[in-house]
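INTERNAL AUDIT FORM
Audit reference: QA-55
Scope: verify that the stored structure record matches its stored sequence.
Auditor: D.O.
Record contents follow.
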Amino acid sequence: MSDQQVFRVTLRMQVHPGKGADFERVWHDSADTITGQSANLGQWLSKSLDEEDVYHIVSDWTDEERFREYELSPEHLEHRGRLHPFRSAGTMTTMRVVHHFTGAAARA
């Protein structure tokens, strides 16, 4: 698959103070909801070092259409519902990967 076909979704999640560990556990325990989708290429959870109680979730998809199908599915609604009690705010950004280069450390 070429980089130009990868559809990327990034979520910025603000969690309630003191709920980070619970959020991480629930996200981890239900991650296969996303990665089990046939159009999903992978996902990552990162914790901000600059903002208190902020997480970033990145997921890559084969195309936007199949991501949007998942977004409207009962599986997504259930997954989102499990994370909702921990979230105080959030935003979503979508994009298409234009170029990707593998770094030296990953090639070693």
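Auditor finding: record pair retrieved intact. The mean pLDDT is 94.
Action required: none
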